[in-house]
Records
---
Amino acid sequence: MSLTTYVEAIRQGIWEEMEKDERVFVLGEDVGIYGGAFKVTAGMLERFGEWRIIDTPISESGIVGAAIGAALMGMRPVAEMQFADFISCAFDQITNFAAKCRYRWGAGVPIVVRGPSGGGVHGGPFHSQNPEMYYVHTPGLKVVCPATAYDAKGLIKAAIRDPDPVIYFEHKFLYRRIKEELPSDDFVVPIGKAAIRRTGSDMTVVTYGAMVHAALEAAKELEREGIDLEILDLRSLLPFDKQAVLDSVRKTNKVILLHEDTRIGGFAGELAAIISEEAFEYLDGPIRRITAPDTPVPYSPPLEEFFLPKASDVVRVARELYAY
Amino acid sequence: MAETQVKMPQMGESIFEGTVTKWLKKKGDKVQRDEPLFEISTDKIDTEIPSPASGVLQDILVKEGQTVQINTTVAIIGDGVAKPAEGKPETQEPPAQAKQPSRPSGPPPVAGPAPTTRGEKDEAEEAEHEHIRSSPLVRRIAKEHGIDLASLSGKGTGINGRVTKRDILSYIEQGAPAVPPPKPVEAPKEAPPAPPPMKFTGEVERVPMTAMRKAIAEHMVMSRRTSAHVTTLFEVDCSRILKAKEKQQAEFERSGVKLTVTPFFVQAAATALKRFPIVNSSLEGDTIVYKQAINIGIAVNLEWGLIVPVIKHAGEKNLFGLAKAINDLGERARNKKLTPEDVKDGTFTITNPGQYGGLIGTPIINQPQVAIMGMGGIKKRAVVIDDAIAIRPIIMLSLSFDHRVIDGATADQFMAEVQKELENWPV
């Protein structure tokens, strides 16, 4: 069997759902003729036609607004943000409308808003951000951040089938770097369930997205020193798998919270509060965070390199925490 | 090479300082781990402290009579090959002549640094005031296993000597002693020597109060100030309980329990307390707090003061259980082996003002309780029964009660219940 890349896994997931369910359609900038800026929708126009693969004007607010309207009329739209950074243009549509419809009048808005997020590709401040926390802070939404090809496919399918708005952040650094063999059956990854990527006993690294791979790399190096990391991939941030986090922390008694997003208001802060509230007496050391600093993502490659958390940061903090 | 710092332990939650009352070893003496090293006196209990390590008592930093904060280093135990101490000979002074003025008296358990005694050498100031570093997890494990973290002092392998999960788990694996660490059995069985005659060096001799004395003084005055004390007196015929005692004595002794009259009175009081829960209450502001558990404190007179260990759940124990508990608590009180737990949570107290032949006393309530029962001496007296004069062993009981919550009628009904129980004891 052949290996499937992360980006191909997303494409397959959308494709399969479109084959199965004619209510599913894609809209966004350059998704049709061009096949999407990152080729997530390559070949779809030919297969599904221009009524289901819709090239739109450059207006994220319009894209999401149209998607919400279609969803309320019974469709299952998948809206692409060319870069996740531009989702802010649709902020009002997402947070004030889509997120609140079910609460206000019982109407589910089954849209998926997906887009490439994250740095590491020298994209500069407008093409490298991790905007997940704006949406994690909005009750009524679901937010997922897959780290593997399997999850990328399983979560896009789950997101399309979900009766409520799902914000799907795919990490562009992983698009063609991550490959794996995927099962041929029709699988989904449930939203809200974490996955243990590595079982360990000395401390837990709770992370998601591209940082899962940084943690795995660090774990390999630390293993040689006899430091045994457990790596928990959240996969979904809203809702998130609180039980999995608490179970792992209660087992290892030390925890590092790792994300590529900036520090203040990042998901690590929320996790730290929950761990402190619910597992305080299981902690054998301080809760440690590894995040990007509180600055825009720099364009300069050396600065970007400095900005992004990496395996060596995990190694350093893990050593400190191990000795604590 | 390896030096172990001996710390002033924390003997109870609200205790912030302790007084070294006696060094059981001299400088240069060999000590074994867990061998009694010194005696301390705190606001709550007096106890012996075992040595945390084996080696040679290299230095004594806190002298007898001196009061220091918990976790202060009081001595150093070395491996015996250590360099001789440099020009700081420690002279040991008998406690009775303690010249070191103790800390000026004030409310004992005050948080914050206690003023260091003036005129001390620098050692005490130099001594570390460091707490034992650990983590929430380590503290929870310690609590679950009844481990005093002080016993892991110097054993932490974390940063700055922090006690880590690995440290405490391996400590438990190696068979950690519970609090307080068990000591080699030694029987301080010699009869307590009579207090030495006072040696006067002038017209008067000024001796600072011990921590225990201060605590008693403060508690007594506080109780008088708090409660509206009233005392009622009852005479009780002890014929039946003495018969019962005689009958059961041998049987109890076979199980290693000495039977005195006290457990009979404890049991009678427990029965009456169940009927009159107000006597087992306390007052918090405008609220009367009734307590389900009947925990009866027994005042134990010690050469060096007075302590009230508590029989927990006395209401649920039979005569044997009570006798055993009283034996155990009395023994440990006299051997300075009570733990802070032993003196906590009393709901009623029994004291024995008659043990040296006194007719009866009117005790002061042990706050925050609302009543205390005194037992006089049992004496054969001529009493009139059915218009005949009979000779009966009679005891006088007193009940001092807090008139804020208990009225005289209730107090008397309570005592009548105690009397009824004792006079109708099944034989």
---
Amino acid sequence: MTDLGRYQDPLTIQRVLHTARTIAVVGLSASELRASYFVGYYLRRHGYRVIPVNPRESRILGERCYATLPEVPVPVDVVNVFRAPDALPGIARDAVAIHAGALWCQFGVISAEGARIAEEGGVTVVMDRCLKVEHARYLGRMHWLGFNTQRITSVRTGLQ
Amino acid sequence: MGDGEEEASVTDMPGRAEQARAFGFETRQLHAGQRPDPNTGARAVPIFQTTSYVFEDPESAAAYFNLQEYGNTYSRIMNPTVAVFEERVANLEGGCGAVAFASGIAAQAAALFTLLQPGDHVVSSAALYGGTVNQFKHLLRKMNVELTWVDPDSADAWRQAVRANTKAFFGETIGNPGGNVLDIETVAAIAHDHELPLIVDNTFATPYLCRPIEWGADIVIHSATKFIGGHGTSIGGAVVEAGTFNWSNGRFPVVAGPSPAYHGLRFHETFGTYGYLMKLRAETLRDLGGALAPVNAFLFLQGLETLSLRMERHVGNALAVAAFLDSHPLAANVTYPGLPGSRYLPLVEKYLPRGAGAVFSFDCAAGRLGGQSLIGGVTLWSHLANVGDSKSLIIHPASTTHRQLNEDELRAAGVAPGTVRLSVGTESVEDLIWDLEQGFARVAAVAGGKAATA
């Protein structure tokens, strides 16, 4: 079993959320009912530039699709993966090659080899976590629907 | 928006980095679910007494109604004050979230309604709150859902009751008023062997005394009216889900299949851990109503702030009153599971190490007349149909809360003609015992020289 705890560190998650601007979503679906579309839509709404990586589509969420990560013409801060776990090593190699800041693998996208490749290439790894949920936990409004954010703080932050 | 060039329509303000820490129960009962109000800095939870919420723009409104964004639309479905209460209960129980309701009974009906469809079957403990028995017996039958009552203390009974169309197991942490303690870990394991969720009513224990999810329960129900509120001011309830049950196991098309109410959205596939609770809120609460009022949520939050302190006192007083009754010649069958002689003591030590709650019953001498004489003789205990108030409460179930049950059902629920139920409050315990002595003086008068049997 992969030790997932080291890929779910709250301080790392917060740093990635706060510093990222451009997120390439590998496996982003064009179907509005799929989880990847919900996440992509949400991230774009919250100010991130979302770049779809999907060889079967031409445009998703109003953005041009790229077939692979190396074809993306702009710097990528986060590679967000919605693919089967066995695709992860290859995606990790691409993430290293394009100098992505972080490789963020959604729920169930778990591969020890993929994590090792990314880490050895200097890419931060977050695994078995949802990017939308973590954003909503620390910056968004997940608490408005009664979900357990696990947050305890008496610090006042700005307008919502 | 096109090609990601425009400003975002919402402003996210990163706060200070938050360290990972496993905060204690007493810290969480005060803080979980609430941050100082970002707009005003208010330290107390604001009461958002509003029916509805202004949308930023048409796209935001659409995103809220499509469930693509966490947003407030209408207080029948969500409210920021209610949300603090929901998150706090979920946090204290160790669940992934919660949905609040206008009563515990509404919460329970909604929890079941979300996972059942006509033709299904539920296996339930027979030792339940009378209101739950009525709901299961009559409301579920109207929905064409079959029910099997089982002796909650028998693992074989749970196992043998399972059918192809069974969809859930249901029990109470501490049965009402018989004091049965549910072997949660064992019953959860049997449920999970059959890919079924275990639903536990944790009202009598509260998350301070027992957290069923830690022992394998999948859904926890609360009547917040009782110890959570703690002051007898408000009616309300909550459903907490662990978030770990696999609703996509093939048995629950009603949760995992495409939802006709949301253009074919599959709640469990799309929202994963949060799928059941999203469906509970966005469909069941939306369509059945029964939303908790913001003011009541505020009062429950006030109660939760002192939950651990009150429960420590409740269980201390309850044990003292139970011990008094256990040695009293006019009382028998004291069902407090924390008493040294209780058959449930091993389960209490496992599941309720801080105390076995504060609600139990005993059989008063001279049967029905004896029980009524006791109630007529006390002046501090309040005669009413509720439990879990800070004030001590007393009632005669056979003529009130369990009145609609037949003889067999009464026996299964642990109720005899002379049974009296107590909810021990947080008063000076010597005053509570003094008052019961006043009542027993009346019982002695009607019992005369007869043997003290109920």
---
Amino acid sequence: MTTTTAPVPSTEASTGASRPSARRRAAVAVAAFLACAIPVTFTMTITAMLVTGTHADHRFHQLTGQGLVLTALWLGALLPLARAGWRGRRPSTAAGYRHLALLGTGVAACAVAPGGGAPVLLAVATVTGAILWAALPLRPRLRGTVSVDPVLLPLALLVGAVLMPYAVDQLALQNAATTGYHSHNPHLYDMAWVVTTIAVLALVGAVVREARGLLTWVAAGCTVIGAAGLVTGESAIWSGAVLSLGLVSFLAPRLARSRTAAEPTA
Amino acid sequence: MPTLRRMPAPVVAPRPLRRRGVDGVHDALALRGSGATSTLVLAVLAAVASVVAALVVLTGDVWSYPPAPQLLVDAAVGLGFPVIAAVIAIADVTAGARTLGRVMLVSGVAAAFTALCTALALVLPPDATSTAVLVQLQALLWVPGFFPLITLVPMLYPDGLLPGRVWRLAASGATWGVVLLSVGMCLYPEPFAGPVPVEKPVTSEALALAFTLPGALLVVPAVLAGLAALVVRFRSSHGVARRQVGVLVVPAALLLVVTLAQGAIPSPWDVLAQAVATLLLPLAIGVAVTRHGLYDLDTAVRRALVAASLAVCLAGLYVSVLAVLRGLLGTDTTASAVLAAGTTGVVLQPLAKRLSAGVDRLYYGDRANPYAVLALLGQDLAAAGPDVSNVPQVVCHRVVSSLRLGGAEVELDVQDERRAVASAGSTVPVDAPAFDLRHRGEVVGRLRVAPRPGERGLDQRDAEILHHVADQAAPALAALQLHQQLQRSRESLVTTREVERRRLRRELHDGLGATLAGMRLQVESARRLVVDPTAQRLLDSTGDGIAQAVAEVRHICEGLRPPGVDDLGLGRAIELAADRVRAPGLHVTVEVGSLPDVGPAAEAAAYRITAEALANVVRHSGAGRVSVTLGAEDAVLVLTVEDDGVGLGPDVLRGVGLTSMHRRAEELGGRLVVSTPADGRGTRVRAVLPISEVSA
């Protein structure tokens, strides 16, 4: 999207393709099943809650951190790994970063706000995720090329500036919730987890050339969170800002200047 | 990697641009004078007014009042358009473009102060005189703050000139319409819907209607004319100019649609949609400036981009770190702020360096990474395949795409003649920097490059990397040079051969043939005079021998040159060849255009290819109709033989006949293509043969 530079390995799964053994495939399948069990269950239950209107006052959380955005990020990190492993290919760098960012921010947020059963959830997610990585025939190449994009980095830091204070507030609220619904159902922690993951993905996408595609996840995540906030009556200013950043994240990679005159004329 | 050579004379050291760009705000202001300064001051005032207005509304608990959301549109215009106007003002652009800049500045300033008046009127005491004045001002300014954007701006974009003389009427209508509408809106007795309705100090419904109605009648068609002007300009422009106009077409149409649909869209989405659509206009112009080179502002935009990017990065980093630290350290805000500021300060220098490199890469490609350019060039050359004729194009394309240069051209020296064999990007000027392509100490050609738009010459780093590229490409281009020299020698040989054959044929036919014929007549005369039977037998035998020799000379003459070509001309000879294949089931047509003297080599090749193609039609095609077309176009002879037979199947192998036809075309430097006609039936043989300069 920015410039054509040194030849680098493709960010998509493409190298080292060889049909894995049946035993390896079985291991990948079992590991993927274990890793995807929780997010798939979450997706189904949250969708059911949204459809039936259960806990309607938590609709924003159901649409975003507690629910659909979280599970989209989670499954979006796991499925490319599992798919590449099943085919015997090396997963893309971006897929590896996606999974690590999700688990890393989850663990960090859990360390700050350990209430409501978050440590158990993170432990299961980390262990099953680690098993999936161990089962992969080829692991993602995480050593990317550091190449700061002058358009995407400010955008990523703006995303961080809008999302990080929110995450800190949510963690503080989670810690403060010692009784009631949120004390055993850590929606606030989930919200902090999701927005922090998005902020980290934005930063990685702006800095690592092979992970530029992460900006699409940032754009989608911010757009959904912002729109859900506006629809469900969250702070209009914050939601509008997040929605705007989401839309800009969709456009920014495409607006980067590229010379188009290099067409043959003779 | 090749060693670095000294930079040759044509490469100029980087110098500040004076004619086609800007180099820093100070230089630009010095160039443009007080006009640019006042534009910049007004632009800053408008931006400040817009931001202050937005902050006042967002912090003043007045969002629920109807004028507040409208303020978003005014603030968007007040922020976006003065920025573009300021950029145009400090650039070395045409007078027309400056006119466009002034329109955007006036509109932006009016919108910004509309926003400020609205914001202040919402928060100031409703009964204060100043509030009423602000309301009156707001009513006066919002029309010039918005309508020029959908009338005059699309009409004048991008060069500030109207698409034609007829558009003057529309532009005048838009201007007068905006003026009349502004006065009408200012005088209209509609109270300001703040916390308490505020009346304007000066109102007159009759006067307001008198101004508003004609104003509206002028503005409405002007709005449509604005969009139409943009579409007309888009359709009539090409290349980069088309892309520059194209980026504004959709935002302008969207703004028009959103504006027309204001009543149908529920609040506050109507205002939000209009604000977004309004902001898209300066964004689109920004895209045209940065991406499509509008106004040649690369240098200024590059520097501005580094500064803006760094500022936003530092602000974002500071806020993020501060938020995290406040979460970790609790309420100790001073310590958090100090630590956040410290962190930001620590990353300032490396971040600036990285961002500068990133922007540099955005504009100059891989100039800072010669290895990447050479690696990609190597890949391109490997992917180009064995045909060395592709090499110059590959080199030009790589140079332009990897270094973002304006254009590139490869010239090759072939037999004391230098000619351009490939180019990419824009046209390369005659005095453009050139880099010798050296192979084994000999210059085989030159790589000429056009500097980037807005730059006068090449940077030292550009020169160094272009030397490397030239060194890398030179062996492949030397191979191409050899190939071309070989081809020219081959063409020369073939031409010489045919010239010599024609001469030989003429000598044999007119010299030896005529002599033998004369001798035969003499022998026959002598035979009639002698009575001795032995002498008669001897003379008969001599006469037969001479007749046989005459026949052999004729046979040799026919073998040297195609029959009839030298005597009757190529066109007639081909018609005779076509006559020979005519049969009851095969309709043959021949169409011969006006032919210059095409030279003996092209004549022979054209005749032989025609004869072979017709023979193939008779033998293999099963065609009922065949047409032969011969004509000359731009120093080439074009021959087409097309039939309606069974055509060439996918598995057809090239036989002796096809190979011979291809060889005859190629040895002259021409080409032959055997294909299936558009209707899918039959076969078409098309030969393009260069007309030889040697015709003696």
---
Amino acid sequence: MPWRPDELSAFLTVQDLSICYDSTAGKVTALDNVSIGIQENELLAVVGESGCGKSTLALALIGLLPVPPARILNGTIEFKGIDLVRLKPTEMRGYRGTQIAMIFQEPLSSLNPVYKVGDQIAEAITIKRMREDGHTQVDTDFMQKAHRVVPPKASKLPRTRRRMTADLREKTIASLKLVRIPDPDQVIDRYPFELSGGMRQRVMIAMALSQEPSLLIADEPTTALDVTTQAQVLKLMKELMDKVKTSVLLITHDLAVACQVADRVAVMYAGDIVETADVYDLFSKPLHPYTQGLLSCLPTGSKRKITLKPIPGSVPDLRSQMIGCKYATRCPYVMSICTEKKPRLLSVQKNHESACYLHGETNGSHTGNN
Amino acid sequence: MEAILETIDLTKYFPIQRGINPFSKVKKFVRAVDGVSITIWKGTTLAVVGESGCGKTTLARTIALLTKPTSGDIIFNGKSIVNGKTDPRQVYRDLQIVFQDPESSLDPNIKIGDSIGEPLYGLMGWSKEAVTRAIQKSLTVVGLPQDIANRLPGQLSGGQKQRVAIARAIGPQPKLVILDEPTSALDASVQAQILALLLELQKEFSLSYMLITHNIAVAEYLSDFMEVMYSGDAVEYGPTEEIMAKPRHPYTIALISSAPIANPWKRNLLQVDIRGEVPSAINPPPGCKFHPRCPYAESICSQQNPKLREISPGHFVACHFVDKTG
């Protein structure tokens, strides 16, 4: 085992996870032996450019990979002592949404357009309630029962006119209040299209957090939002994280967003995690040349003061079999070993790992290496 | 300094019909651009920043004569260009646009070389040899290999396509280039390449840019002057450095502090205190359109829409209580 994340506190550990997509043009390696751990009550941001595999990682964690074309080649996802990779789809249901919840980039396409937002949140609350009542096995029967959120008598009415029980309605309003939606008692009866983008994303957060999950995966949650709305939603997420005691895995392409909210950041490049570090360390002394390059790409002032140093070249084709470091073709510090053998993600300093021969293996700090 | 482009009280209203009856009376309008006056000086960059729906793209499209303004005047290169006072072909030659999404602004069935060459035949009326030479030169200037001219857009990456769009825009040797969100579809490392290229081209061909963006960092990097728009109104205008250092309109303050910065010691995002969301452009709030969200709002704000006032040389703010924000 080349590297183990901090075993003591990590409650979700990804070990050597490799995932590929089979396409007519060849096998695309989306994740290449990725190892990462998420700790309790931590906001871990995974940053990288499009196609680096960050969304594939998120989908693998919550068991929503499209199989086929996706294939898990090897690796484990250990969550509270259970390997999620080995679970059957029916068993995975017991975790998805309840213990691991997810919010997506485009809230309009993740909410059901023909149901009122209140009903959609109420459904989630009912499922949680039934689970607490001793329904451990989540099967179709269970799901059907859960959908009966209405009193039996009312269920003969058309769907649009059914009403929830008063107590469920109260709970739903409370969860809308939690995400600071103005006039929750009116919003509860609206359809998703009647809400603004920011409100929709808040509804998604309300729904996800109503389950009190141990892990919330947020895949580009604010990319479709305006900056002032983005600030509100991120602030809310950060506050609720402490309130509900959940960990967050934030997938983003925006380094600045990661920098603003994350506790720890993992940088991905072409299916590899190239660096993970505490947010302060990563932005003050980035170790991996890709992270350094990415940071010098950010416009952080006027053209009179700073000159951007773009990374030359472009991302490699993930269909080709690559030996050695995938960043070697663009790296200013490339050495002969870089094209021969792939560098492993090794601990360089405390809470700072990098996959590069510039440090790590050359200075012999094989922490946690058997 | 000489102005390359000036708009005087430019408005653009879109009528909205209720129902499907084509004869129904048009009652309401989307006030996309609601009386905006801007000036772009020769050889400089003006950034128009704002959130989605604030009218920045409509402003650009109106200036480029892609839609007719409802009222107001546009003076380009010393001449009014609205209502056919100037030959539109002359305007199209001197004023080019780079659109946000290179995917949809390049014809997927036309080879890159022909895409770049088309305005040179049509607008400039050049001969075939001259166009071929110009295509080669444009590709070199934007840093693309020559053989790309024979490829189709589908074979190119996003960054390459945006370079092609830039090459096509600078082909007719324009005086002003409108950049509508030129990098928002691109990754950080590609964005840096395009920004560097744009600066290089500006220097080489002494271009003026009008940059439309929602990204404050990009606007700060590329621009000399900045115009902040909110719901169809210009709320603040001035030199970029001054606005970034000391924004005065409450909305500009909120906008700049909402923009995430890559410095973990300056966590501005979690301190932001802004309520609500952008109002509808059909029924904007009366008076100052920002007043329902504004921490300084008083009764006058809901009655009277403030006009742009010069608070220091070249720095204009539209706010009744600009003294409080200073």
